[in-house]
Design a protein that fits this description.
single chain, 138 residues, mainly alpha, extended
């Protein structure tokens, strides 16, 4: 299990490194920088570290901690090279436009919820067919 866990951590770390531009994209041979995706993989590793704290052996914990430390440092370095970043700012990417609060607009009219649809009637059992029921221990 230790080997599988370490391989999983390394796979997540490799995905984060790919989107930080540290390794070339296998499809294009050019480094690709996609900070939101890199942050997602780093955050997933951080969640794994938090949720497994105290439950990992020494080797597993060391691999996970080293991967997180290196990826977080690389993320900060890439962020500092991107336009508009200032030290001390949040590293979180801005929320997608779909989650942003809507601009001031006319209030929408209040609409009463529709009544739930009436349940469909149960079909009548066919004559001559026996209905079976399951019984668990009775």
């Amino acid at each position: 299990m230790t080997q599988i866990f370490i391989e999983f951590v390394m796979m997540q770390a490799q995905n984060a490194a790919l989107f930080l531009g540290q390794i070339p994209n296998p499809r294009g041979d050019q480094p690709e920088v996609n900070l939101p995706l890199a942050k997602m993989f780093i955050d997933q590793l951080a969640v794994i570290a938090a949720k497994t704290h105290g439950n990992l052996n020494e080797q597993e914990a060391k691999v996970l901690d080293n991967a997180l430390t290196q990826l977080e440092a690389a993320f900060v370095e890439v962020m500092s090279r991107t336009e508009g970043f200032h030290p001390g700012e949040s590293l979180a990417p801005p929320p997608p436009a779909s989650l942003a609060p809507p601009a001031a607009a006319e209030p929408s009219p209040i609409v009463a919820p529709e009544a739930p649809p009436a349940p469909a009637p149960e079909p009548a059992p066919e004559e001559g067919r026996k209905r079976f029921t399951k019984s668990y221990g009775a």
